[in-house]
Amino acid sequence: MPAADRFDWFADVVSSALMPSALTPQDAAGFYAEGAVLDLGTAQVSRFSYSPLRSRRTPTLIRKGDPEQYQLGLVTKGSAWFAQQGGEAVLQAGDMVLWDTSRPYESGSGTDGSSVEAFVLQIPKAQMLLPTQQVDRLLAQRIPGGTGMGAILAQFLVALAGNGPDCRPQELGGLGNMAVKLATSCLAHRLGAVRAVPSELRAHALLRQITAFIEHNLSDPELTPGAIADRHHLSLRSLYALFQGQEESVAALIRRRRLEQCRSELARPELEQCSGLVDRFREGRGGRTFPNDPVMVTE
Fold it and tell me: Is pTM beyond 0.70 here?
């Protein structure tokens, strides 16, 4: 990008790839940045390298756009600080910090005047296996990435961003699940809650994940219980067992949501003329329908 456009470009990329934020550079004329994003299906990892700046997320910006995520930042070069929910973390290379996109925050980077490199793991709240009240205790708290679980997570994120683009699309979803589980385990260790992310909590999170997957793929004719089980690395039997305590089976959920989507589409004002044509077509046949009749979709 031309030098005069670099900061505006970076601000737009951050707002679209992460969340709407108000950025203020230390030196707008000399600003420099690079960015890359890797979509992992259940999660997303981003890498940014940029000149010193400050960032704020206000209630107005939250209303403008909220991905409803927990975002875990890893600083690999330079320094930064982050404040949210009464906590404040001062970060050096190798440190991590967690924040909630649904809450205001302030942050600064390049506090020593040098550029910063950071990786960000974006975890949808529906995928987080820990209770909200526990996760809240870790917001804007420094998480060392030099030893133990922190080091394993930090090294995984760097390797993921570096080598993920060479993976096949079907492999990226599995890597996304691994990233979320590893991040959850690291956070649980920080909380001293290693004994469990209880099985019922894991099942609840998986159920929400599968429901969201169904919702986003209703138009796919290949959306079947078997395909869903494969996508989430489950046996078909395990998938059916997961839905046993629910009001409807996985197949019934797909069928109901598809019918609701059809009903919503057919209710669109621009389709009223088509609806009239269908009615006249039926009247011409005495109101009869047949098994393979496309008109049946309106029933």
Answer: no
